[in-house]
C-alpha cells in the first residue's frame, strides 16, 4: 500500500477483506467490487486466483494421489507467477508437501490441539495475577474440552 498512488490506495481501501474471503461467501456487490479491484491490480488478481485454487484442492481432492497431482499443478502456477509472496508460499508448500498430504491418509488435523495451545498461552499471559502455579494448572484443566475427531 505504501508504494501505491493515492487513487490506487482509494481503490483498495476497505476492500482487502474481499480478497481474504472465499469467493462463494461474497455477496453480489462485494463480488463485483472484488472483480473491479482485480482488473486494476494484476498481482492481487493472481494471488486471489491462486488462493482460491488452493482452497479448491482442500475441498475437492478425494484422495492423496489427486491432492498430490493438484498441489504439483498449483506449485507450478505459483512458481511461474510474478508475485514474490506466492513463489515463497509455493516453496513452503513444496517443502512440507509430505506432511500436508498426510491429511488425506489420516483425515486428522492438529487444529484442536492448536486451539488448546492458544487458549493455554492466553491463560499463561494472564497468570501474572495468579498466586501460585497450582492455581494456573487448575485453570488449564478448567478450559473447555477440545472436540476430537471433528
Observed structural traits:
extended, 2 domains, 71% helix, mainly alpha
Summarize the structure.
With 150 residues, the protein is mostly helical. The chain contains 9 helices and no strands.
Verbal overview:
Helix 3 crosses helix 4. The protein folds into 2 domains: 6-106, no CATH class; 111-141, no CATH class. The protein is built from 9 helices and no strands. Helix content is 71%, strand content 0%. The protein is mainly alpha-helical and 150 residues long. The chain is extended. Residues 146-150 have low confidence and may be disordered.
Question: Whole-number average pLDDT?
Answer: 84
Backbone structural class:
mainly alpha
Amino- and carboxy-terminal Cα gap: 39 Å
Percent helix, as a range, is over 70%
The proportion of residues in beta strands is under 5%
Spell out the helices and strands N to C.
HHHHHHHHH
Point out poorly predicted stretches.
146-150
Query: Main β-sheet: number of strands, strand sense, barrel status?
Result: none
Rg computed from alpha carbons, rounded to a whole number of angstroms: 21 Å
